[in-house]
Specification:
Helix content: 25-40%
Radius of gyration: 24 Å
Number of helices: 23
Distance between the termini: 55 Å
Structural class: alpha/beta
Number of domains: 4
Length: about 675
Amino acid sequence: MSVLTVCPYCGTGCQLIVNDPGTGERVIGYSKSPVNHGKLCIKGYSGLSYNFSRERLKHPLIKKNGEFLRVSWEEALNATSTRLLEIIRKFGPDSVAFQSSAKCTNEENYLMQKIARMIGTNNIDHCARSCHSPTATGLITTLGAGAATGSIKSLEESKTYFVIGSNTTEQHPIIGTAVVSGRKNGKNLVVADPRKVQLAEIASIHLQFNPGTDVALLNSIMFVILEEHLEDVEFIKGRTQGFAEFKKEIEKYAPEITEGITGVKPDAIRETARLIAKGKPTSILYAMGITQHIHGTENVMSISNLALLTGNVGVRGAGIFPLRGQNNVQGSSDMGALSEWYPGYVPVDSPKVGYLEDLWKRVLPRKKGLSLSEMFDAAADGSLKAIYVMGENPLVTEAAISDVERGVDNLDLFIVQDIFMTLTAGMADIVLPASTSLEKEGTFTNTERRIQKVNKVYESPGEARPDWWILNEVGRRVAGMSNYGSPEEIFEEIGRSVPSYSGATYDNIYPIGKQWPINSDYPNGTEILHAKSFPIGRGKFVPVRYGPAAETVSEEYNLIMTTGRNYFHYHSGTMSRRADLLSRESPEPYVEISAEDARLLGIKNSQTVTIESRHGSIETKARITDKVPKGVVFVPFHYDESRVNRLVGKALDPLSKIPEFKVVAVRLLV
């Protein structure tokens, strides 16, 4: 038996074929996929064994007297619904909150946000809040759609790649391979990153800028483009708005001035500007190095400004590519699993919500709900009484973990639905065992807006059930939701709720998927967005003024810590650290430190050190490297035994509510 499905790791959305073990190689890439053309990274080839881990949750559990007891599904579902309804009746619908999952299908995210809204609250959010909420907020403001403007395949036609805040070969290896291939074929590559990531080693230019100075860097590049008259005048006049105000702000950012902020030499800025503006079409790729800042939304808007200034939108080989971290960040956002948007990015206070009220036959809440971090603060102060988490591990992944723990401890009810007993699940009152994506049917939407069919390969262990089945049972009991007989039935309703999905069906997206919008005008999907117009009419320039990060170095905290992924692991390690090969390749946490800083601090390679910030401390092993410059350290966030987010503070981007993970003042102690 061979089953075609989608990789459950990063947002690239590689298609893979899972073969019966008796046929030889168990997992191979799907050669006809326009995403990965038969290629897979190590997580695709060797990272699926978590599915068979002995640690899988197999039965519903309820905590009694501090210990989990196995119960039947009926008892678990009745306890879930009864206790939620008691809290809602006593304290109102905004006393409960739901945390959805970018690892789950579109259908499951749609159901969870629908339950929240039908109960009467917009307290629904998911991990996009902590990775790409600035992308949604920023690009909807400037272009009218919070998504990649092109396709992965169209990157083959780029003449210049500008990669900023993305360690692409480790975070999105198949897309990284496309960039490496283009570079080998003589294309331009500019990498802007505080670390010397793999792509920096082959780049035409590596802009090794100071963490948190993205806006100053981007504005300085645009200063040169305007100074040397390299802007796309025709595109600006014909398709944009707000240029005059934007230009006034950019005039303040001469490279000779910004060098003191960014640490980048003026000559490198000028050469970069010329490559981006002259080497068209230019594609701009970014990830959490851009978004995870208190100025994350402004960083995204600055990238949009650069694309509009040079006319690098709406044509093949050009465009803006926010590289999504998890397999379904794009889809779960499309489904409305965000506290300020209904499905299809309809603002919660918009009159357009009326069409959903007609569809769902329910008066829906119109005020913004709580974001992820706000949920735990509200739990700590007692205003939020219950949280229902699906497929996420916030006790590892969220900022200011000590505050998250305090919030969870203060809840009247904590429900966790997952495939493993994570640190978060261990704190729950009720644990509901879920199926992996290899054990269920549905759809994911990848980083290029491609809706792809997920197919069942294996049976779930024990009594584990697909998330959609669990949510369907809870929704019927708690919200009076109608019964859904299958994921396909849910997907049909998504098509009626989300205009950009209106023409998609399980049949017509199979086997290789289609990029939204898919509708009567574009029945085969849309590879390139904004080719003729923008959803908001004209693309919008937004003047963005540089502001410093929330934290700076001091005599006491003399290093800047930044965080991210490594090649072998994914998110909180829930899956990848239960895949034997991946765990063996990167078994323990570490901190990267420059040789110069290590010498000054008397630190030896592999020595255990303490990292302290103003918010907490952790222990880990030192890894001396030339990847980070003096004054900067890097820590991956996959390891629950050394939770780096204990060091991260509570500062948030005021526009998108994302925490500042990428700039934390720390010190290292031996």
